[in-house]
Each structure stands twice: as C-alpha cells, then as structure tokens.
Specification:
The chain has 446 residues and is α/β, with parallel strands linked by helices. The chain has three domains: 120 residues, 3-Layer(aba) Sandwich (Rossmann fold), CATH 3.40.50; 124 residues, NAD(P)-binding Rossmann-like Domain (Rossmann fold, 3-Layer(aba) Sandwich), CATH 3.40.50; 196 residues, Dihydrodipicolinate Reductase, domain 2. The chain is 33% helix and 25% strand. It has 14 helices and 20 strands. Strands 19-18-17-16-12-15-14-13-20 form a nine-stranded mixed β-sheet, covered by helices on one side. A six-stranded parallel β-sheet has the order 8-7-6-9-10-11, sandwiched between helices. Helix 9 runs parallel beside helix 10. The longest helix has 17 residues. The chain is globular and about 75 Å long. The termini are far apart. The structure holds cytidine-5'-triphosphate (CTP). The site of cytidine-5'-triphosphate has 18 residues, from strand 1, helix 1, strand 4 and helix 5.
Length: 446
C-alpha cells in the first residue's frame, strides 16, 4: 500500500485545495492530510486565517479524499510524521517547488500542479472589508506602524494628522497617504484611528475620535490617570466602539502562551514577578522632557505593568516606588506591587541601564524570559530538576505591531468590545498605578 502525506492550512477551503487533495490521493492508496494548528499558524506569522482548526479539519474531511487527518503543530514535524506513519510520498503544491527537497532523505517528494487564480489569501481579501486607518502623529512608532499594516488583511493606512504641515507632508509622502493638519478634515476621511501622538495629547485625540464615532487604537501610555481611562472606555462602550490600548506585547503569541501556561499551573502558585525594561536615550529627546511627559514611568511602565497585571491580576494590596530624577524627569524607577499571595517588582530606565528580563517565580518552578522580554520570541520554564526544563521558541515578526493591529480589526469585525489579551479593567489598572506615581503616593527619591 502506497501511503501519501500532504500538509496545508486549508482556510476557506476552495477548488485549489480540492484539486490538490484529489491529485495527492491519486498518487497512492492512503492519504494523510496534515492540517496546521491555529497556534502553529500564528507562530509562523499567518495571522489572518479565518477558520479555526476544527472547521478546517471538517472541511478537509468533507472532501472525501483524506483517509486520515492529523494536526501539524511544530516545525520539523514533517520528518517525524513521515517516519511515524511510514509514508512513501510527500506531496505538496508547486508553489513550494524545491522547498521540501530535504524530505527526499525520508521519502519521495512530489510537487503537484497548483490551481491558478485561487488561494485562501485571495478569498480572504475579497470578503474582507477594508478599514481606512488614519494615524495621529508622525513620530518613530507611527513609522514602524505603517509597514506592519501591510501584513494584516483589511488594514489600509490612508491619512496622517500632524498640526505641523511640514511634518505631516513629509510622513505622507514617504507612505503615499494623505496629510492633514486639521482634525475635522482628517477624521471625515478615515474609518478608524491610531493615536501615536505625544503622550499628553492622547486623551484629547482619543476623546475627539470617539465623539466622531471612530474606533480607536491608542499608543502607550494610553492614559495617565484612572479617571481618564475610565471615562474614555465608558465613552467607547456607550457608542459601541472599540477602544484598545496598543500594548504590543500583550497581543503577541509567545507572551500569550506564557500567560496561559502560568495560569494552568505549570510553575505552581505564582509568588513573584520581576519585569525590567530599560532603553537609554540621549538628549535632546522627548523622553527626557518633563513638559512632554517624559520619564521612565510614562515610557516603560505600561508594558511592564501589563505583564505583572496579566500574571497577578488587579487586586493588589499596596504599591511603592523608588525613583531617580534628573531635570524633573525619572531616569530610573523601581516599583514594588504587593498582592495578598504574591509580590512583584518592575525596574524601568531611560538614563540607567538594567537587564531587561522577565522572571515569574512559582512554588514548582519559574519562567525565564530573557531581554528584551517585551519582544517575546523565546522563554524557558525551569525547575529544580533541570532535566524537566522546557524551552519555547516563537517568531516575533517584524516590529510586532501586526498582532495588535490584527486584534484591533478582528474586534471591530466580530463586534467584540473587550479582549481577553488585555481587558479594559487591566488597562485602567495600569493607568491607576502610573497616576499613583505622579501623585507621589509612596514614592521615595534616591
Ligand atoms: N494549493 C493549490 N492550489 C491553490 C492553492 C493551494 O494546489 N490555488 C495547495 C498548496 O500548494 C498546498 C495546499 O493546497 O499544497 C494547501 O495550501 P494552503 O496554504 O492551505 O492554501 P493557500 O490557498 O495557498 O493559502 P494561503 O493563500 O493562505 O497561502
């Protein structure tokens, strides 16, 4: 009996898939079809898949060509499968010509003709509404944002707003989009807004965008006080709009996996979380400017607090800070957040360099995420018995903003107003801690 294996995502199953499966089946007597898992696809940067793995498996089964369906969940699995299932022929579409020649060592590799003119990508594009994104602000993060939208279906940056005409024009020219200096004109020509303006303008721009009935993705720090955050989320809810804090790490696959693993008890009860983030900057820069809400807290607390809050929750007992100021700006701040059953600390620097790692300690083991933990692509779960240690590898594609953009649009499309990856109440809690620092509550200078 000749055993054939083939692999694919099989999203929105189409005629190209059916032809491929038929041809693969004709190569032998028994066809095994490997369907990628959702996490495997996300991990390799395929973020737009519409059908979940169960739906995709059902669709493949319904073609009637597969004798057996398996799930592809990790890189290198094909070699394992070919040996495990005693496969004679590995078949795949001709768009992969040459890419799987390395499997010749284990079985015969056949590239089958691909059906022209159809693909899941095309079908997704055809059925996807396109959201015209307007960016407020044209600084560094806005420049990183535009290329990231290119890999997310339905995202199209069309406009930039900057009250400074020259800056607006120069940004617009680079990306071939429309420049505006007037908010009212800008907002009429966009469907959704990405706020990437200076910190102190976030509140006002978010509010005005919501009042204009636009969904908003707002850069960090989303808000500098609890009341502002609450007010904005309430306003979004009343208008049935998505308002999302652009906490990029919260939406990336590897960080999500850390949270779910820890919550499932892999390191026992969590007793301590230590998160550090430092990026040294040189003057003149807004990060060192008091009048532009610079400082390590405003710059880096949102991501580190997000990690602590995702892992330990929002019911802390007390919060204290130790801070080093220069020209009215904190160049270094260390914070301690105590919970009834755990403690945590964060170390932030813009004028002091620290190791930027994340360590989550539990009663059975700990999770170590090396610097830069906020661009999470690797972590290790470690135990006293080192033979039980496990390393996890992920890809953190591009600038990593694609994950939040994808989530933002998915919330709009699917009419979701809250996302478990960063709940609104967690976002409010982040603003509350930042506010405590600015109010001088339990702050000691060093
Ligand atoms: N395939 C094909 N003809 C097409 C599309 C896909 O023969 N028009 C084949 C692929 O070569 C592969 C299998 O179908 O062997 C599964 O491919 P998959 O990546 O799931 O399908 P695509 O439509 O190419 O998906 P995407 O656009 O997301 O890459």
């Amino acid at each position: 009996m000749v055993r054939v294996i083939t692999y694919g995502t099989y999203d929105l199953l189409h005629q190209g898939h059916i032809n491929l499966l038929r041809r693969a089946k004709e190569l032998g007597d028994y066809l095994i079809v490997g369907v990628t898992s959702d996490s495997f696809d996300r991990g390799r940067g395929k973020l737009n898949v519409r059908n979940n793995v169960l739906e995709r498996v059902e669709a493949v089964k319904a073609t009637g060509y597969a004798d057996e369906v398996i799930i592809e969940d990790y890189l290198g699995q094909k070699i394992d499968d070919i040996q495990k299932y005693d496969v004679d022929i590995f078949a795949i579409g001709s768009d992969w010509e040459g890419k799987f020649d390395y499997l010749n060592e284990y079985c015969k590799v056949v590239y089958l003709p691909r059906t022209e003119g159809i693909s899941s990508t095309l079908l997704r594009e055809e059925s996807q509404a396109v959201y015209r994104i307007g960016i407020i602000g044209s600084g560094r993060i806005a420049r990183r944002f535009v290329p990231e939208t290119k890999v997310v279906n339905g995202a199209q940056v069309v406009a930039v707003l900057n009250p400074n005409q020259k800056e607006a024009d120069s940004f617009a020219q680079i990306y071939g989009i429309q420049a505006y200096t007037d908010f009212e004109q800008f907002i009429q020509n966009v469907d959704v807004v990405y706020v990437a303006s200076p910190h102190l303008t976030h509140y006002d721009y978010v509010k005005r965008s919501l009042l204009a009935n636009k969904h908003v993705l707002c850069e960090i720090p989303f808000a500098l006080s609890k009341s502002e955050a609450l007010e904005l989320y309430k306003m979004a809810e009343e208008r049935n709009l998505v308002l999302m804090e652009a906490s990029k790490t919260a939406y990336c696959p590897a960080f999500n996996h850390i949270v779910t693993l820890v919550k499932s008890g892999i390191i026992g009860d969590v007793v301590d979380v230590i998160a550090s983030l430092s990026k040294q900057v040189l003057p003149p820069t807004r990060e060192l400017d008091r009048l532009q809400a610079g400082g390590a807290m405003n710059e880096h607390a949102p991501l580190t607090l997000m990690a602590i809050i995702k892992l330990l929750g929002i019911d802390w007992k007390d919060v204290s800070f130790h801070t080093k100021l220069e020209n009215g700006v904190d160049i270094y701040t260390k914070g301690i957040i105590n919970y009834p059953h755990a403690t945590s600390s964060f170390t932030l620097g813009i004028g002091v360099k620290t190791e930027g790692n994340l360590v989550i300690s539990g009663t059975k083991g700990y999770v170590y995420v090396p610097a830069p933990w906020w661009l999470t692509d690797f972590f290790e779960v470690r135990y006293e018995d080192q033979t039980k240690n496990k390393k996890f590898f992920y890809s953190y594609d591009g600038e990593g903003l694609r994950y939040e953009i994808q989530e933002f649009l998915s919330m709009i499309v699917n009419n979701r107003r809250s996302c478990y990856k960063l709940r609104r109440k967690e976002s409010v809690a982040i603003a509350e801690i930042i506010e405590k620092y600015h109010n001088g509550e339990n702050v000691s200078e060093i």
